[in-house]
Amino acid sequence: MATTNTPRLRRILCVTSNFPRWSGDSTTPFVLHLAQDLQALGWEVDILAPHAPGCAVTETMEGVRVERFRYLWPETQQTVCYQGGALINLRKHRGNLLKLPLLVAAEWAALMGRLFTRQYNLVHSHWILPQGFTGVLAARSRRIPHVITVHGGDVFALRSPLMMRFKRFSLHHADRITVNSSVTEAAVRELDPGGTPIQRVPMGVSSNVVARDIAPVAEIRARHRQGEGPLLVFVGRVVEEKGVRDLIDGVGLLRAAFPEVRALVVGEGQDRPELEAYAASSGLGAHVHFSGWVQPDEVRHYMAAADVFVGPSRRAANGWVEAQGLTLLEAMVAGVPVIGTRLGGVVDSVADGVTGLLVDEGAPQQIAAAVKRLATDPQFAARLVKTARANVLGRFSREASAQAFSELFMALSGQGEKYPT
């Protein structure tokens, strides 16, 4: 009697507190990209995320199935996540702390609902809290593996005794932890010494190169670059810890040597009005332009338009540091020399003097000096760009990241080579 081979199940339930709310939303696109890349490798990925005002409860977004759970009514009260992220929302609006237990309970209930109605190989939680906690409880109840991906802010911030206990519990009872950098790994080890195995898997960036001479890039340069320049570009959340104030001060210091210097701040954030006012009061309103939110596909054009990309992040009051520096990597692919901060996981992404330049946090004078060096030594800048792009394509591409996750997931679900425990 002939036998047929039934394909083995390869399905992941991914739970996250941040995800694009609609097509074109710039909220943590790397979570969507990883899901898409895993599906290209043969996995089926379902996303579970909090609902937000104005977004669909269920949809298929760019080929990925998404379900968003409600945790408060009316929906306008759902303000813990998105709009800069839960950490910022909890810090800026203390009333969100009262909503946090409702979010956690709703997330756990939604997880259990999915696990009882559909079969999965494993649960993949982005961020330790609350996803790592709810994911551990749900996955253990169904006796399937659970992987926590730590992005940095979740381990560096939330340091109260209660939150530390929740984080330790979640990390200790996961089957595997992935981290994006050496500094994130060290912080996890401090929380869970000798516990759950850790694998370093950086989030990947697109390897698509944008040419500077294409029309959208040329239009941005024509609109924002003045005379001899240089044009500096920042992309990210416009919040204090991203260091935009230091960039503004750096522009002020550069005016003597480069009277036509301009800085373009791309992104939105809760501190934008304050920082715009600061630029104006410093006499730099004409030199620093805040473009606001742009479509994710357009971000690459803004990066490619830069003479120098600056990512001057600094340590936040709650302990947050830049855990990887994805925008720096994206700028490298765009063929732009980068300046980052000698802080957190940025040191893994930028090799000082080899793939970019590093400065101390809160040091606008060093930012100005680094820009001047790149602007006055184009051969040096070109060497950095060439080395940086090759490094990113080899170590930090979306393809490499997805392949590493896929191999880990296959091992945990019994379909591939076992990882050491």
From TrEMBL:
Pfam families referenced in this protein's UniProt entry, alphabetically: Glyco_trans_4_4, Glycos_transf_1
Domain of life where this protein originates: Bacteria
GO-annotated molecular function: glycosyltransferase activity
Membrane spanning residue stretches: none
Name recorded for this polypeptide: Glycosyl transferase group 1
UniProt keyword annotations, A-Z: Transferase
Span of domain Glycosyltransferase subfamily 4-like N-terminal: 29-204
Signal peptide: none
Stored InterPro entries: Glyco_trans_1, Glyco_trans_4-like_N, Glycosyltransferase_grp1
Keyword check for Transferase: yes
Residue ranges of every copy of the Glycosyl transferase family domain listed in the record: 220-389
